Amino acid sequence: MHPGQSEAAHALGLSNFNITVFIVLPQAIKAVIPALISQMISLWKDTTLFSVLSFTGALGGAQAAVAQPAFIGRQ
Predict the structure, then answer these.
(1) Is the distance from CB of 23 to CB of 1 less than 8 angstroms?
(2) Which domain does 27 fall in, by range?
(3) Burial grade of 38 (CB within 10 A; 0-12, 13-18, 19 or more)
(4) DSSP 3-state assignment of 2?
C-alpha cells in the first residue's frame, strides 16, 4: 500500500480498522486471487488424477482376486 493512501484515509477520519477493511484488504485480495485460483486448479487436477489411479488400482486388485480359484471357492 502506498503511504499516501494511508495518509488520505486518516485525513478522511477513517480508523485503523476501517483503513484495513476498506483499503488494505481489497488490494491484498486483488493481488492474491490469481495465486489462489492456480492452487485450486492444481488441487482439482491432482485430486482427479489420484482418484483415477486409485480406481484403476482397485479394479486391478479385484481382477486379481477373481482370477484366483481359491478366492471364489472353486478348487
Answers:
(1) yes
(2) 3-72
(3) exposed
(4) coil
